[in-house]
Amino acid sequence: MEDPIQTDVLPSAPSEPKQGTELLHEELLHQGVEVMFGYGGGAIMPMFDRLYDSPIRFVLSRHEQGAGHMADGYARATGKVGVCIATSGPGATNLTTALATAYMDSIPIVALTGQVATSIIGNDAFQEADITGITRSITKYNVLVQDVGDLRRVVREAFYIARTGRPGPVLVDLPKDVQMGCKVPRPDVQMNLPGYRPRRKGHMRQIKLAAEAINASERPVLYVGGGVLLADAVKELRELALRGNIPVTTTLLALGVFDQVADARLSLEMLGMHGTAYANYAVQNCDVLVAIGARFDDRVTGRVDTFAPRARIVHIDIDPSSISKSVKVDIPVVGDAKLILEEMLPLIKPRERTAWFRQIEEWKRKHPLVYDRSSSRIKPQAVIEEISRQTAGEAIITTGVGQHQMWAAQFCRCRHPRHFITSGGLGTMGFGFPAAIGAQVGRPDRTVVDIDGDGSFQMTITEIATAVEQKLPIKVVILNNGFQGMVRQWQEMFFSRRYCATRLNNPDFAKVAEAYGAKGMTIREKADVTDAVRELLASPMLTVADFHVEPEENVYPMVAVGKALHEMDMGALPSWEPTESMV
Amino acid sequence: MERKAVFSVLVQNQPGVLARVAGMFAARNYNIDSLVVGRTEDPALSRMVLVTSGDEATLEQIRKQLGKLVSVVKVRDLTEQPCVVRDLLLIQVACPPERRAELKHVAEIFRGGIVDVSSRSVTIQLTGPEEKVEAFVELCRPYGIRELSRTGVIAVPRDSSQGSQSPAIRRGVPDAAAGETASAVASIPRRTGRA
């Protein structure tokens, strides 16, 4: 394996026996771990004891799910592997939502869990849970360490698997006796992964075919996903778009991969169920669609058999199982997006494509993202626009899941990679706030704003204690509509406005924040939004700003389930002009 | 179009690997017709032979998803190449002493052998490709099947290097140990014996 972290020899060949926790700690340091997020308990106590005087920073969450999302947010903001740790049984099962979230979005995290001693595994011991069994389908890999002698190798493999290939979460289960046991370590640590050989270099013939298809195209679109971020191919992507003169649409996870401000002419922003009309129309009308590190999620494609009906589809992805999984691909290129784009760039010829860009400009002019600005109430979109304006796209935005997430995706002007952090695949409510904690820990130099919903925020509101304790000046914006808003919107549209169990009777969020020692703000008047956002952004401490917004605002455009991408519901605003969606 | 596929999957011999493979099938809603795990010549590796069915796109996904599992070292679709496929059957058939000779004769036609006898039944052992085993089971049905156990198929590809063919093909006679060659099997009707 080419990478030096994986193939070292220990500096001195030690002959003294070492305890499991010591070996584990050595490997964590060797992997460059600077911070861990977690919560203790009986079966992980030996490892916590080793962390007592460790140089690794420890962030104590108030719930293990929070710790998992923090590691995830840290990984997304920094590009490093996030590490979380929990005890056996309930501690480990509480991590599962966070693991599933990271798995769906291909985020590299390593979860360490305590386990009862090997001698009593399977005896229904106190706080025993078969966590490797439970998490098998929501981790990229997991392993129960059986022997102290295996510890360093197994942990090394865990980090290697987590961050290479298509990244993902790896769980290492550590029985108490393995943590406590002593062994003379081997002088070298050899990984043993005969079945794991992620392909990095793309096939040159396929790359040429892809380049030829792009060069011949009159109406190409680049459809860019989180894989470009994971492959660190942001620069190469921009070069491809600029050199080839190709418009770019990104998925939710790839927001910020392409600068919506500096390269506005080429930017179509987000596509999909709540994407922009111009992105969706462009995809439906393109003749070549180049998917890069994206996986044709059902929230992106709409009805699959009507997706990009006129396009030859090029798909660049490191995961062969992503190719032709839901949409048949014409030119697959398997490998690392950065390496493939580097090879492809010299083959790309500049083209004018005047008619195509004229069409896109017309769509942009006729179908901008809009909302009713004349309303006397606070519109959630207006709050997001104001945050985006005042931070100029330089802040790291995290979100929960639901309406506020879609508005954030639509109305934040995303400029930098790793600055829009959200749970895409799993759609985990409660993700935004702990992810913001992880992001702020990893990027203390950046303003971190959690744009959250009243429903989402309450799912992980306990972590205010963590953020206050760690003195993290995170800005929490609650777009409080008193509803589980997205579900309410669907009830309005598809269930005859029968609002079953979506109304939320909320606490006074400002007072809750103050009770924890944070700053709280409540904003009810439209006229106060600008100043409130200014005050929020200037606050040096954790601040929760509770914006009481229009309760029954809907997210538009919307592609209903089962509809084609161009069959968008545009809402009822007068500014929409009818147009021919298919040209 | 749906078809059957036989995958030969080389895996690391480690705890949980069967659960990983079986769990992937369950999680992704793929069907397993049969699954056999056994040791190989290398103690660090096991081989699974897995029979499944689906359309081409599904089978392609199954192959890729198997390959994606970290513990899986190699995946081969044996239906894409000539291979030797065998299933082992143990079947206990209700059989009064006066009908033993006739049942023994049927078993011999299929190159099966009687491995246990009682006053009420005989137990027959038989190996062969699935179709042959199924044909024999159908022939036993009128007697009354008391208990039946099958291993599921195991398979190895035929050695495609020059001059190497199954002894049965080379000699032009049925392979005494293992039954018929693939072409001979095709001529056995699948539902023999059913009214």
Topology:
The complex is a heterodimer of chains A (583) and B (195).
Chain A: E1 18-19, H1 20-30, E2 35-38, H2 45-51, E3 57-60, H3 64-78, E4 82-86, H4 90-94, H5 96-104, E5 109-115, H6 131-134, E6 141-144, H7 151-163, E7 170-175, H8 176-180, E8 182-183, H9 204-216, E9 220-224, H10 227-230, H11 234-244, E10 248-250, E11 267-270, H12 277-285, E12 288-292, H13 298-301, E13 312-317, E14 331-334, H14 337-344, H15 354-366, H16 380-391, E15 396-399, H17 403-411, E16 420-421, H18 432-442, E17 448-453, H19 454-459, H20 464-469, E18 475-480, H21 485-494, H22 509-515, E19 519-523, H23 529-538, E20 543-548
Parallel strand pairs in A: 2-3, 2-4, 4-5, 5-7, 6-7, 9-10, 9-12, 10-11, 12-13, 13-14, 15-16, 15-17, 17-18, 18-20, 19-20
Antiparallel strand pairs in A: 1-8
Helix pairs in contact in A: 1-2, 1-7, 3-5, 3-18, 11-14, 16-17, 16-23
Chain B: E1 3-12, H1 17-27, E2 34-39, E3 45-54, H2 56-68, E4 72-77, E5 83-94, H3 100-109, E6 113-117, E7 121-128, H4 130-140, E8 145-150, E9 154-157, H5 167-171, H6 182-186
Beta-strand fraction estimate of chain A: 15-25%
Instruction: Please report the number of helical segments of chain A.
Output: 23
- What proportion of the residues of chain B form beta strands (DSSP E)? 25-35%
Total E-strand runs of chain B = 9
The largest beta-sheet of chain A arranges its strands as 3-2-4-5-7-6
Shape of chain A: globular
What is the helical fraction of chain B, as a range of percent?
25-40%
N→C terminal distance of chain B: 29 Å
